[in-house]
Amino acid sequence: MSQEELLGFTGLRGGESVTRDQMQTATDKLTATGLFTDVRFSFDGQTLTFELKPSPGVVPVQYESFPWWDDKALNAAVAARVPLFHGALYPGGPMRDQVSAALTALLAAKGVQARVSTAPVGDANGDQVAILYRIDAPPVVVESFRIYDYSGVWTQPLQALEKATAGEKFEGSMRDKLADQVRAVYGSQGFIDMTMTPPAFGAPHVADGKVLVPATASITSEGGQYRVAGLHLVGDLFMSQEQFAQRAKLHPGDVANPDVWKQMREMIAAPYRTHGYIDAKIDAVPVLDRAGHTVDYTITVQSGPVYHMGKLTVVNLNDRQKAEVMPYWQMREGDAFNTDLIPKFMADYHKSRAEQLQSIRGWAFDAKWSGNKDTHSVDVVLTFTPPAQ
Length: 389
Prior knowledge:
Helix content is 29%, strand content 31%. By secondary structure, it is α/β, with parallel strands linked by helices. Strands 7, 8, 9, 10 and 11 form a five-stranded mixed sheet that branches. Strands 4-3-6-5 form a four-stranded mixed sheet, with helices on one face. The longest helix is centred in the last third of the chain and has 17 residues, at 258-274.
């Protein structure tokens, strides 16, 4: 933010006289944005100086279903309507609603009477790292997806993809999603170096109470079919090379299918996730021989330390409810931390106990956990929230 922008926001003007009440009003106005944790001013009779401390709670804005603009253009359009907005805001401040109002107005200018909502975006530790804006109504969907410039052998699977895509909910990641779906068609037959234009979106229009977005893409090169040259597993291993070869769904000479390769990576990762290795790093590097149309796969594992179950905190359950629910919790303090047991906990409860005997029937459940890199322990917070009355 520039000096001129901040000064204009306060309503003060250089060269004009100013009262202490005006200085305080400007300070309060800057503080109310939530962009700053501390705003102070000093005046020596001639120069008015503001000291601003940026808020660490400011998070970037993300957009999910605004096909008329890309993120950069939409940020600029919102900034023209919301003072001090530069693609980020403090979620607890007034700017959140101001951005919603700006987006609603921008949509109205396109002839769309929309309801815009926000949602927090969290990281693995449950900390908010962004705020998401999306159109709740009317629904925004893909009208059609047309793929061009492919050879006849691909007609059936690509036309099936086009048909399946029509009517899908339009999301902020739709461009990448459509491209990945096309690559998956080619990749399933080993054509892993196929290239294409990024999916492009046509002008959205409203029909039958929906915002319809047409999409197109073109194949620029289909490439050639690749086969597996070799598979290698190295590092801190839970299985031998022989066990890996037996369980692997790809073998030398097979068509190089990226989806099967991802399944193999998950097969290798699962034992680390269930034995406390929450810092395990699994790097999978495919090396392509473009001349010979082969690919050599190497997976390297760095397991890191074993983490153990630490403190367990249960929120919003009384003693009777805890006695009903917590017997299904299988991790005890000191056990190797197993991330898979967290969803299994509630699944076992609902499966084993008749619905009419569930005192938390209809309650929302959320689990957050954080690992301590010094003690290698993991504290877990289980939060149960009753349905709104």
